[in-house]
Amino acid sequence: MIKAGIIGATGYAGAELVRLLWQHPSAEIAWLGSRSYAGQKYSDVYRNMTGLADGECLPDNIDEMAEQVDVIFTATPQGLCASLINEDILKKTKIIDLSADFRLKDVSVYEKWYGITHAAPQYIPEAVYGLCEINREKIRNTRILANPGCYTTCSILTLYPLVKEKLIDPSTIIIDAKSGTSGAGRGAKTQNLFCEVNENMKAYGVATHRHTPEIEEQLGYAAGEQILLSFTPHLVPMNRGILATAYAKLLPGTDSAAVEKAYRKYYEKEYFIRLLGEGACPETRWVEGSNFTDIGWKLDQRTGRIIAMGAIDNLVKGAAGQAVQNMNIMFGLEENTGLKLVPVFP
Amino acid sequence: MIKAGIIGATGYAGAELVRLLWQHPSAEIAWLGSRSYAGQKYSDVYRNMTGLADGECLPDNIDEMAEQVDVIFTATPQGLCASLINEDILKKTKIIDLSADFRLKDVSVYEKWYGITHAAPQYIPEAVYGLCEINREKIRNTRILANPGCYTTCSILTLYPLVKEKLIDPSTIIIDAKSGTSGAGRGAKTQNLFCEVNENMKAYGVATHRHTPEIEEQLGYAAGEQILLSFTPHLVPMNRGILATAYAKLLPGTDSAAVEKAYRKYYEKEYFIRLLGEGACPETRWVEGSNFTDIGWKLDQRTGRIIAMGAIDNLVKGAAGQAVQNMNIMFGLEENTGLKLVPVFP
Amino acid sequence: MIKAGIIGATGYAGAELVRLLWQHPSAEIAWLGSRSYAGQKYSDVYRNMTGLADGECLPDNIDEMAEQVDVIFTATPQGLCASLINEDILKKTKIIDLSADFRLKDVSVYEKWYGITHAAPQYIPEAVYGLCEINREKIRNTRILANPGCYTTCSILTLYPLVKEKLIDPSTIIIDAKSGTSGAGRGAKTQNLFCEVNENMKAYGVATHRHTPEIEEQLGYAAGEQILLSFTPHLVPMNRGILATAYAKLLPGTDSAAVEKAYRKYYEKEYFIRLLGEGACPETRWVEGSNFTDIGWKLDQRTGRIIAMGAIDNLVKGAAGQAVQNMNIMFGLEENTGLKLVPVFP
Amino acid sequence: MIKAGIIGATGYAGAELVRLLWQHPSAEIAWLGSRSYAGQKYSDVYRNMTGLADGECLPDNIDEMAEQVDVIFTATPQGLCASLINEDILKKTKIIDLSADFRLKDVSVYEKWYGITHAAPQYIPEAVYGLCEINREKIRNTRILANPGCYTTCSILTLYPLVKEKLIDPSTIIIDAKSGTSGAGRGAKTQNLFCEVNENMKAYGVATHRHTPEIEEQLGYAAGEQILLSFTPHLVPMNRGILATAYAKLLPGTDSAAVEKAYRKYYEKEYFIRLLGEGACPETRWVEGSNFTDIGWKLDQRTGRIIAMGAIDNLVKGAAGQAVQNMNIMFGLEENTGLKLVPVFP
């Protein structure tokens, strides 16, 4: 039985970790960390867990946690994980960081886009970017797992085969992404009130969103060259779900068969990726509550572009689900253990 | 392994049965029946099931089903189940009927409220009303299980201990219930379009809703006398969830302790009922996707009334979840097998 | 041209006042007061007003306001209006208070339910309760107008003719009310975040909501006796709208004709009340954005009860619209001036 | 007083026409046409109009209408308007067609994208494309006004100055648009049920949506050359609103000042266009219920692209509002007569 600790268990991603780990047959939650609610019953904060996780929220004592648990999930704001880890902790436990601290290999890019000084850059080289379907082998043996961002996961998985197989021109990539509101977190902000979000659609962080360099870095590895792309996130009046609509120019000679072949090459055997095929449009409702990524695409002969679309649940494959998937890999379990959740509809 | 067949697998309740049975460790779906979509891939109708339930929808051939399966779930309009069953079928398989055909013991009440002639009244006496927490013993050995209505389940469970223990005056019961829109079914009706339901709140079926006699009959058994009550359903712009707000006059001498004691007496050991206690208000979000019933209440000294509140997921405890719970009982399994679903929030 | 000042112009009710007064042919906004946003452009806070109300938010200087305006609307938390007014101000300007400060005639009831000491009880006797359709004559000449609460307006208008004409037993009144989330205000509270409210239904303030004594007092005047009733508010995942579902025992001899006659007697000539008749269920969508109150009802012979239902837009008839309607009366204008807004659907 | 007739008054666009014309000081509705609801009271279909538009729905007798009205609005499926008009009718009345029948100048493009034979191609040359801010002069004297599509209006207005002033490369234009569900119409289709749309985000009509050639044609006129572009519509779980996020490569030398200057040149004096400036993101909530178009943009130096964003209410500026604006121009009224509606928020 894997003993898991969570720092930040009362944010939305943290709460989703609690939901998933509670149902996991080979893991148990040994530490429910929450700075804001320390001392309160967890199920008083998240009443869906009444009778299931009635333990008390604990403060963020990472040294004590390291003694007690096999893996620590940090579902916390940027900068916290980097400020907490050290050699002593890493000798005792593994870290799965849901923040951005160890996602970018170039610390200067991190510091520029996030506007903070990285507190533990010495650990960046060994950290592994935990996009399971692509980095599976490296994930097995790491101590520090950088769990990808939600927009990032959806965007990269949607475009990876096209970039890797050189079917599109990377300089023409535009990703127009739409997210449910849980992605904005549980902080009490006026802009996230029901009446402000409901019956509304808007873009935000245009040309400045922090997931941009993360997408560029990972797709750059696939392309074997540096990539600059446009990424625009939008806020949608729904709880969960990310839809990424990606556009790119097809390279000469790319036809439907080549695209289909590329997607199949990388994803056909993946449990958590469902290829819907050309002409099919993924919808967030069909993955809600699950760890699936649904992908569809359409070649447009008129404009010479492909429109590739991916859909995930931002809290599952975009956060807690992928974190558990990474845990499974890191601890030698079947990758879908505890994650065979059927999407909930309606 | 229990082999299960579903008639009406492409309605919302039927689809929820598919979701639950797919995850069930001791059952498998052997027949996906759908008159409307016969011949189509199930996962083309419900794309959440892509890769999970890709079989073809089959027509409603109950004779053939009876040969192949151990239990048939009928998630169909009123009247269909009664028109299909006969001795031959009941000898081969068990029936769990999610429609109202076998819920009311008095066939004239059924025919009056539903406006149809009952096609198989001879089976009414042996059918068992499948409110698990109350009729558990009778459920074990029945061939015909009448799965309760969604409003009914929520209303009865909320009021049962108060009526049974004679803490309230049954003649003063008023139930004001609110339901998510999945309760209206998947039929293509203008009144259920997104723009008609969204940003709206309304009552419907005032003083005429068909769940009324079902609630009255069951609470009447608890009271040991006939009960007439007011029941008003409302449509809420959300997918899932029923909230029942019930009002009644406290009988002389009823105090907080007596109420708490009554609720504990009947529900303390129930896995699927969570007593939130006096002063707590259940919310549908905390049970969404799960088989739980959350109950809270408040005594109002000023008016001498109690306000008792219950919340369920109408598609789970209000339909498919309770149906599976009944199946578990009927087949001698642990009652929560396959049903330890954690509520999904947000 | 009536010069109007608003204190609290950046709350939801205040913003609705801005919307209505901007469109009013005989009034103009001379003071946009907002403590929180003083110094900012109003249209930077409420961007729907871009190009329409681009003036700066001003601090709450009521003395200065009194010099400049003919009427001050206070759309502020309880206690503020009472703490600001004095004889000097009342000599210069009229006050329309959207808070509860002057709604209850018995100051001890106010202090008990609101938990604060009333700062200006000497003005309570002269203040007029501004439920226009009922108190029209008294409203004409008052200096202090107590604008009714949102739940209150809907509840009282729904039940008034039945109580006044003695068709129901007041001791049996139960009001189950449902409100859109704008009623919870624009404060940055976790419980009002999109993901907390969306896909959820709950009761709150059970047996303790502050609108209860206000409803009891006003219906008590109609009945000619003290009334105690049950009032339960619920939060609905929609922006606007209140639906009140009210239950009461019919007094002997009350039939459909008597009920219809009573409603017609009081409301037939009212521009803002639309009687839908027996059997019709009002819906919030049909009044959204307008100052209408839609009323329907149903007599239930089985239980001897009436179910009376009313729907309003909580920000219009339940707050800003009624405030403007009161202004129109107080300044001798046609009552529906600037208020002939057609409900917006969908 | 302009006498107006509406064919298709019970669709969402038709109902919005009724709302707007009812409030219009210089127009009156003389014919409420609805094939589906002929003989029923209009306010029984749209109960927001109770007491306001209680007249009976009439069949589509265009000959009789032409005798009685000054202008006929056709808010009907493609093909109907073209099949109805003739010289006799056009001599008696003006036509404002909200369908696509007269929007495209090349009849073969129409027939290809819409898949129907045009019944009256002889009238295409004289029909004027009614994008008011751009074609104002031509609109004044036409008999046949082709009211633009909703996506089209938003997309063209957002990009027009950039194309016209040659600041972007038209071959790189990608428009990712998001629409509220009222755009899908009031037909009873399963895919538009509340539970199917709610909590979901999807693209549809990828690379094949019929508004594409309309956008290309109009922007082509502005560019002075043929344009092919990518247009992807998405369905959003909200009632109203369109957000268009448009991407294009900046031409060499285009800087922020040039972009701002271009937008100001064409729109600074337009009542219905609100320029939010660089860095501002328009949101649909700020225009809901109004005829405004809000526009913002962002230059991205990293990628050499501009992201231009526009927001409208699809039923107002995207349909009925623009139709009334066109009527105002055609009848010599102030362009914003009856259209000074303040956006309703929240």
Tally of strands of chain A:
13
User: What is the assigned CATH homologous superfamily of the largest domain in chain A?
Assistant: Dihydrodipicolinate Reductase, domain 2
Quaternary state of the chains: homotetramer
Q: Note the beta-strand portion of chain A.
A: 15-25%
Count interface residues per chain for the largest interface. A-D, 46 and 46 residues
Structural class of chain A: alpha/beta
Could you list some keywords that capture this structure?
homotetramer, 346 residues, alpha/beta, Rossmann fold, Dihydrodipicolinate Reductase, domain 2, 2 domains, seven-stranded mixed β-sheet, six-stranded parallel β-sheet, globular
Describe the fold and architecture.
Four copies of one chain form a homotetramer. Chain A is α/β, with parallel strands linked by helices and 346 residues long. Chain A has two domains: 2-126, NAD(P)-binding Rossmann-like Domain (Rossmann fold), CATH 3.40.50; 151-314, Dihydrodipicolinate Reductase, domain 2 (2-Layer Sandwich). Chain A has twelve helices and 13 strands. Chain A has helices at 12-23, 42-45, 62-68, 80-84, 87-92, 107-114, 132-139, 150-164, 194-197, 211-223, 256-267, 316-330; strands spanning 2-7, 27-33, 71-74, 94-97, 128-129, 144-146, 174-179, 202-203, 230-235, 242-249, 273-278, 293-300, 305-312. In chain A, the strands form two sheets. A seven-stranded mixed beta sheet of chain A has the order 8-9-7-10-13-12-11. In chain A, strands 2-1-3-4-6-5 form a six-stranded parallel beta sheet, sandwiched between helices. In chain A, α1 packs across α12 (316-330) and α8 (150-164) runs parallel beside α10 (211-223). Chain A is globular and about 60 Å long. Chains in contact: A-B, A-C, A-D, B-C, B-D, C-D. The B-D interface holds B 12, 181-182, 186-190, 192-199, 237-239 and D 12, 181-182, 186-190, 192-199, 237-239.
